[in-house]
């Protein structure tokens, strides 16, 4: 077995209450990727696997763009959308490299936020909820939506909203716990990084990501840490979990009376980079801290496979993937240290020279995140 394919299914797990902007976010993400502007600059295409699903999202997007009409609230029903993130042909790329990479499959679940507030109507819906959450919880990164509109509605006493938000989510997950864990066995695959994301951040134009963090810490640190404890109870190796240490601002469009400016978006271009890159640096730390391998280390390692591939282009690396934890641990740590030392640009140029697609994409993602931080849209955990 070589390091081979990195084809993966990446679930996008967005946790948000009713009206918090989930459907608009998904529509804007997909619709934006169909714009010529995106296609000119991006290294990849986002294609819906099911044409009519894709059309529905694109319709949502065009409805906002052209007639300022909004998608309907999801009632009762959840839909899972599956996309392929297909790489563009890199001119001159070597056939050998081309074979190593497969497209990324992206699954994005859109479900009614009502689910956090109301009990299911009967067993069929209950089963559907469990099924949706089961797949949501196989993602590597989760976004926890904080609704800027609700912050404004509770201006001056934001804690009322924030405490309730984290508590509802905690309770919602606790209620599903027995159904989600088979025989009570803690999960291995689980989002280990939970990012707090401010949706509709266009409503608070003067608010930067540090202020978001400060507000959450000031007003709801206790509830967030209770949520962390509950999430830790779902998983093996609960130390490998980061909840509310990363923050991002999101806005799917700029909403003005009578018009919706879909091109004025914040943070949407960080969603894929966050999903791909955020777990990496922490994961490596976690793997090293575990010392011996085991199921969790192996799983975590598989989530950093693209990075492993990236490094193998720099460092000769023997052996099948599952035996390399000990071998590459130090190189990974060393590599990550280098990454934070302005080496990204250099790697990025190097990768482009070599037409090495995975490296180009990963380093691009890394640069996107750096830009997000510079623009004060993203705040990454210091750990
Ligand atoms: N200003 C602003 N408003 C937004 C944004 N995204 C959504 N909204 C508003 O919030 C409303 C609800 O958004 P949805 O995406 O339908 O919310 P949802 O989370 O899917 O809600 P449910 O389907 O009920 O769970 C929209 O109709 C818009 O009015 C945004 O980025 N900025
Ligand atoms: Mg919705």
Concise summary:
This protein is an alpha/beta fold and 383 residues long.
Question: Roughly what percent helix?
Answer: 40-55%
Distance between the termini: 33 Å
Bound molecules: guanosine-5'-triphosphate, magnesium ion
Uncertain segments are 1-6, 95-100, 312-327
Order of helices and strands: EHHEHEHEHEHHEHEEEHHHHHE
Strand order of the largest sheet: 2-3-4-1-5-6-7-10
Note the topology.
Layout: E1 9-15, H1 22-33, H2 36-41, E2 44-48, H3 51-67, E3 79-87, H4 95-100, E4 104-110, H5 122-136, E5 141-147, H6 148-153, H7 158-180, E6 193-199, H8 209-232, E7 242-249, E8 254-256, E9 259-261, H9 271-290, H10 294-303, H11 305-312, H12 325-353, H13 357-374, E10 378-379
Guanosine-5'-triphosphate is lined by residues 16, 18-24, 70-71, 73-74, 112-113, 200, 202-203, 251-253, 255.
What keywords describe this structure?
383 residues, alpha/beta, eight-stranded mixed sheet, 10 strands, binds guanosine-5'-triphosphate, binds magnesium ion
Describe the structure.
The chain is of the alpha/beta class and 383 residues long. It contains 13 helices and ten strands. The chain has an eight-stranded mixed β-sheet with strand order 2-3-4-1-5-6-7-10, with helices on both faces. The protein has a two-stranded antiparallel ribbon with strand order 8-9. Strand 6, helix 8 and strand 7 form a beta-alpha-beta unit. The longest helix is centred in the last third of the chain and has 29 residues. It is globular, with a radius of gyration of 20 Å. Bound molecules: guanosine-5'-triphosphate and magnesium ion. The site of guanosine-5'-triphosphate has 21 residues, from helix 1.
């Amino acid at each position: 077995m070589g390091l081979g394919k990195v084809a993966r299914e990446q679930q996008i797990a967005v946790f948000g209450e009713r009206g918090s902007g989930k459907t608009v976010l998904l529509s804007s993400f997909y619709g934006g990727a169909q714009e010529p502007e995106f296609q000119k600059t991006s290294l990849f295409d986002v294609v819906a696997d099911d044409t009519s699903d894709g059309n529905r999202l694109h319709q949502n997007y065009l409805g906002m763009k052209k007639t300022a009409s909004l998608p309907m609230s999801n009632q009762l029903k959840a839909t899972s959308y599956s996309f392929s993130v297909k790489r563009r042909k890199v001119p001159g790329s070597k056939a050998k490299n081309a074979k190593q990479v497969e497209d990324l499959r992206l699954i994005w679940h859109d479900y009614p936020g009502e689910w956090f507030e109301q009990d299911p109507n009967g067993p069929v819906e209950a089963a559907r909820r469990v099924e949706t959450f089961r797949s949501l919880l196989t993602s590597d990164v989760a976004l926890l939506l904080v609704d800027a509109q609700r912050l404004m509605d509770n201006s001056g006493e934001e804690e009322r909203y924030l405490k309730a938000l984290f508590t509802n989510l905690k309770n919602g997950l606790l209620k599903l716990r027995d159904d989600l864990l088979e025989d009570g066995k803690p999960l291995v695959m689980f989002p280990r990084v939970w990012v707090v994301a401010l949706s509709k951040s266009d409503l608070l134009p003067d608010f930067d990501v540090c202020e978001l963090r400060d507000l959450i810490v000031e007003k709801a640190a206790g509830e967030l840490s209770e949520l962390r404890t509950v999430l830790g109870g779902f998983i093996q190796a609960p130390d490998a979990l980061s909840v509310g240490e990363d923050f991002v601002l999101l806005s799917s469009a700029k909403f003005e009376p009578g018009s919706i400016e879909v091109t004025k978006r914040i943070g949407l271009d960080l969603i894929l980079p966050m999903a791909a890159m955020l777990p990496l640096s922490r994961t490596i730390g976690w793997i090293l801290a575990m010392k011996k391998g085991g199921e969790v280390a192996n799983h975590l390692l598989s989530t950093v496979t693209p990075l492993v591939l990236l490094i193998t282009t720099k460092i000769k690396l023997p052996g099948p993937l599952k035996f390399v934890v000990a071998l590459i641990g130090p190189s990974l740590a060393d590599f990550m240290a280098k990454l934070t030392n302005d080496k990204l640009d250099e790697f990025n140029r190097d990768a482009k020279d070599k037409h090495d697609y995975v490296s180009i994409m990963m380093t691009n993602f890394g640069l996107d995140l750096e830009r997000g931080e510079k623009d004060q849209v993203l705040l990454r955990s210091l750990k």
